[in-house]
Amino acid sequence: MNKIILLTLSVWVISFSVSAQKISSRVVDKKTNQPIPYATIQIGENQGVVTNEEGSFSITLDEIQTQIDSIYISSMGYEKVGVSVQNITDSIIYIQPKAIELKSVFISNKNLDIDDIIDNVDDKMEDNYRSSLAKSRLFFRETNTNFIKKMDIEFKKSTIEEIDEKLVDSISRVIPKNSVFYAEALCDFYGDTDKQKLNVIKGARLYDKNNNGSIEGVFKKMEKIFKDNVKPNSYLKIRSGLFSQKVQVDSILKANQDAKDIADGIENPKENFFFKSRKMNLKNLFNETFYQSDTKLNVIKNSGRYDFERVDYTILDDVGVYVIKFTPKRRGDFKGTLYVNTEDFAVIRVDYKNVKRLRSFNLLGVSFEENGYSGTTIFQKGADGKYGVKFIEKVTENKFGVDRPLSIIEKNKFVKGRNKQNQLSLNLDIISYAKNKYEVIVFDAKNITEAEYNSSKENKNVQSTYLSKYNPDFWKGYNIIEPNTAIKQFKAIEEDIEEE
């Protein structure tokens, strides 16, 4: 949604349902009936949640450390409104936009030109944002959507009777053309930009195992063909165009088993993919905020690449905010909006979207395009006076292609006669698209000492729970980012799949 709409909304509609110790609601514009994303729902000092892209949120009161009787709702251009938890009698609560009352500091800063404002943002960045060691309790959701547009595997030659054109065609058919995967984790994240530790409290994977059922049959068939036809001590020479690589047969069989395990949802405790990917992605998300040194979103650090325009003023929690649009010059990559605190010149929210392809290559039939990079990041001031990440939503979109020959040759130097034993030759023409969405909400962040960081523990062997369909009770008792409609409606083709 265009964030400028937030300045013209005349009312919010919030539908509350209170059951036991949980509040569920949806924030909607009364005039347009459109949802309001990323509104802040405060439930205690430095505690709270953020509405999802559909304007929905839920709060588990049992998870709150202190007794509360009200929740507080705020967003750009609106009063911070308190709603009594115990006395909710109406399903609709009307909230009027806040008229901007120009404080003295707001008036004095009003006449700053745009270059002065951006210079102040840059000059005060080191003072405004937390860079010390910290511990953050957070919830992290990742959504991966994949679409194979083209899957042509042309059979050319095989010296193994069982590997024929019919088998190659069957492999091409069983690979799912469309798939979606959700991963969720409640974590404690320790560290800074240079070093990190992760403790996963609870995690889940939501996807359709049936997409992998027929693949498992291919794994078993290929493993039997390998064992029946490939000689001990052999190695495979895999060649594609000008490039070749040697691979031991034992490692192929091991990789085959690992691939089967992943398809089954079994994770190797020594190489826990769920843990490693959560830690890597969280590290990347925090290190790609606009004030980090190597960020792609270098709007402030490379401000000469952008044109800035102060388009409005607004209010957030009784604080004046500059609304600043940025658009790229010739070397800039993004367009979007900065919301800058008029008092301390901290960027408290940034919305961004790339305007051109960020990265691409095409070499010898292998191609990659980074076509999409967009999102919203919201920052919150802590008790230490420093700002830290409160909420992240980031979406990336990529295209991958392979159009080249592939040859697999079995060789064995211990067999008399010719070194070459078997050969399989194919032509590959594959195009696939991937869209990844990342959502993070930080519930609590506090500075820690070097000793506290060193004593913190990682649970690298933590196991996540496989879900074949959305289970509203899985996160009961925890505060999370409310799932969107697609997640709530997700279920595997067969509903009776056993959970791990």
UniProtKB/TrEMBL annotation:
Alphabetized InterPro entries for the sequence: CarboxyPept-like_regulatory
Is the keyword Cell membrane assigned to this protein?
no
Instruction: List the keywords (alphabetical).
Output: Signal
Source organism superkingdom: Bacteria
Where does the secretion signal sit in this chain? 1-20
Name of the protein in its database record: Carboxypeptidase-like regulatory domain-containing protein
Its source organism is Aquimarina rubra
